[in-house]
Amino acid sequence: VEAAAAPGSGGCAPAGGGSVPVLFCFSVFARPSSVPHGAGYELLIQKFLSLYGDQIDMHRKFVVQLFAEEWSQYIDLPKGFVVSERCKLRLVPLQIQITTLGNLTPSSTVFFCCDMQERFRPAIKYFGDIISVGQRLLQGARLLGIPVIVTEQYPKGLGSTVQEIDLTGAKLVLPKTKFSMVLPEVEAALAEIPGVRSVVLFGVETHVCIQQTALELIGRGLEVHIVADATSSRSMMDRMFALERLARTGIIVTTSEAILLQLVADKEHPKFKEIQNLIKASAPESGLLSKV
Question: In this protein, which residues make up the domain named Isochorismatase-like (predicted)?
Fold first, then answer.
């Protein structure tokens, strides 16, 4: 974690006593707390870690920012800053310019199943194949204890999730009208999962709900893996250009087999044989991956 120097300060109101109230903000969260009068950078970092340690990926770099009233926005924490008055601080992850490593572990991963509904069946290309792959992914999630979040786009008009997909044990199944899956209830559910770092995302449509969900998630500092053989659109052109665009933003476009084997990581994993059996049940080549 590192802070950048910048001129100026502000966003504070006087406070007396031996401690000063501070609002600590990270991602979508804001938590009031207090620190000793005169607390400096190191103590502030410790406070952020005590409040958000289970949310912060220590492999990333961060900048601490202070809300400046004279600018009506956050500025980088001034060099030598100490807390003397009530203020609002936030911890911001810096964008990493190198290719994301994309490591997956069950304890830091959540699966997002997006709008796999009955009314889409006749319209979405290769819909039967992505249903089959999606079902295997959800079986894998249950075997590995990975939380699953499911949405349904306007189910009153578009129907529920298809019967072939077993939602047993899903953490959340939500109706929505917004295209993105990032609803307040979803954000609350993510906040309840300690140490979540990666989202495995699949469903329909690639260029609408999948794309908008992925962009919102990376904007919140999460790593996103889109399962190419479990996502589709009505148009293969829309799908292809969406995947290309998302890959350029640092989102990982991958396959169901790669995801499942990365999550077990070792043939000695106690669930390896069961995961291997899921992979062996793969549908015949549909041509979907040739259109990535």
Answer: 109-257
Phi and psi at residue 90, to the nearest 5°: -140, 150
Q: In Å, how far are 34, 133, 142, 281, 289 from 284, measured between CA atoms? A: 59, 11, 24, 9, 12
89: β partners: 24, 66
CA-CA-CA-CA dihedral for 5, 24, 90, 67, to nearest 10: -70
Q: What is the dihedral of CA 278, 284, 286, 291, to 10 degrees?
A: 60
Name the nearest CA neighbour of 240 among 116, 127, 125, 128.
125
Angle between helices 127-144 and 256-264 (to 10 degrees): 10
CA–CA dist 76, 60 (Å, integer)? 17
Cα 22 to Cα 91: distance, rounded to the nearest angstrom:
13
By annotation, the residues acting in catalysis are: 115, 176, 209
